[in-house]
Design goal:
This is isochorismate synthase. The chain is an alpha+beta fold. The protein contains nine helices and 22 strands. The protein is globular.
Length: about 400
């Protein structure tokens, strides 16, 4: 008897159709590999002990036994281990190729936004200085500090239009929209964004991670923009920061992979607003029972969003950041019943609730960081969502 052939679902829709079909409450995710739109709830994934990969595997197995022909776990997990999570096995899943970036989309409206930074820029710069004191005292090698912008409009934000603008502005990004409503919310809450950073993917035996660390804002002038890209690639400070992150990601994946390839030198990738140092790490999984979500949980949080050493950096973040991160710098993605899936770092994101929007951005602080430059970097990272909203930081 010939061995069974594993057949996975193939896209049967157009990417543009799935994007157009998205409504708040659905789960939407797209990357270069394709799009996924999920609706309804077949089962919620609960993991009181924190092992969400194990809980997800159990939920998927139960869905198969119940006759679900294409069960997938989708959702988001917060930054902290004890933080929020929104993971479900949806009732209906539709797949498609990735939508193109040149399709028509309505321009961003320009409502009268009220914009409140949290903390104030001067206080964020002070927090960077305090972080540098910890680094100078050898308590930390790196810590990532985030800040927020709270935006309020006179009318509810149209999340589908916002998502469409994010997808078409940067087709190479991992765009997502996840319902993260919590008790007490005055209206449904949606986590929406376009992350440039792949935490990890698994397809069959192939594993890919693409950590980013070391960034520079882009500018409109082409010659100056090329200069910024070259300066980033040559920056000893940024390369040292990036090396921390790539080495840690490689170390963790090495526990699960029988083969691992780590490029000796980083490259530079670009988004419409930023240049980033990038290392694409590839490997072959040793145990097929290790799912994409299990790999993501093992990697999270990487030094790209937390720091080095992780525990001390996490404590410093709790002390220096005035607001809880919630889902910011967590992970968003999906895992199927075969263990395949894709999870990205939750950056270039916002939470939308009726007419209120909270944007997030952060910067990695290492020896040699300049508080004003780190403040400017977070401002540049806000532009992804600000442009899609038709707003600007004051």
């Amino acid at each position: 008897m010939s061995p069974a052939v594993l057949v996975r679902p193939r896209p049967v829709h157009r990417g543009a159709d799935l994007l157009a079909a998205y409504l708040p409450g659905s789960f939407y995710y797209t990357s270069a590999h394709g799009s996924l739109l999920a609706d309804g709830v077949h089962a919620c994934v609960e993991a009181d002990g924190g092992d969400r990969a194990r809980a997800a595997a159990a939920a998927l197995a139960a869905a198969v036994r119940a006759g679900h022909d294409d069960p997938v776990v989708v959702g988001a997990i917060g930054f902290r281990q004890d933080g929020p999570a929104s993971l479900v096995v949806p009732a209906v899943v539709r797949r498609a190729c990735a939508p193109a970036g040149d399709g028509p989309t309505a321009p961003a409206a320009v409502p009268a936004w009220t914009v409140v930074p949290r903390p104030e820029p001067a206080r964020y710069a002070d927090a960077v200085r305090r972080a540098l004191e910890l680094i100078d005292g050898a308590e930390l090698d790196k810590v990532v500090l985030g800040r927020c912008l709270d935006l309020l409009s006179g009318s509810p934000v149209a999340v589908p239009a916002l998502l469409a603008r994010l997808v078409r502005a940067d087709p190479a990004a991992h765009a997502f929209a996840v319902d993260v409503s919590a008790p007490g919310d005055p209206a449904p809450r949606t986590l929406v964004g376009a992350s440039p950073e792949l935490l990890v993917s698994r397809r069959g035996t192939e594993v890919v991670a693409n950590p980013l660390a070391g960034s520079a804002p882009r500018v409109a002038d082409e010659a100056r923009d090329r200069g910024r890209r070259a300066a980033l690639l040559a920056s000893a400070k940024d390369r040292a920061e990036h090396a921390h992150v790539a080495a840690e990601v490689a170390r963790v994946l090495g526990r699960f992979c029988r083969e691992l390839h780590v490029p000796a030198e980083p490259t530079v990738i670009g988004t419409p607003t930023m240049w980033h140092l990038s290392t694409r790490i590839t490997g072959r999984i040793a145990d097929p029972a290790t799912s994409a979500l299990a790999l993501a949980e093992a990697l999270h949080p990487t030094p790209a969003v937390c720091g080095v050493p992780v525990d001390r950096a996490r404590d410093a973040i709790a002390d220096l950041e005035p607001l809880d991160r919630g889902y910011f710098t967590g992970l968003v993605g999906w895992t199927d019943r075969h263990g395949d899936g894709e999870w990205v770092v939750t950056i270039r994101c916002a939470e939308v609730c009726d007419a209120a929007v909270r944007l997030f951005a952060g910067a990695g602080i290492v020896a040699g960081s300049d508080p004003d430059a780190e403040l400017a970097e977070t401002g540049a990272k806000f532009r992804t969502l600000l442009r899609a909203l038709g707003a600007r930081e004051r």
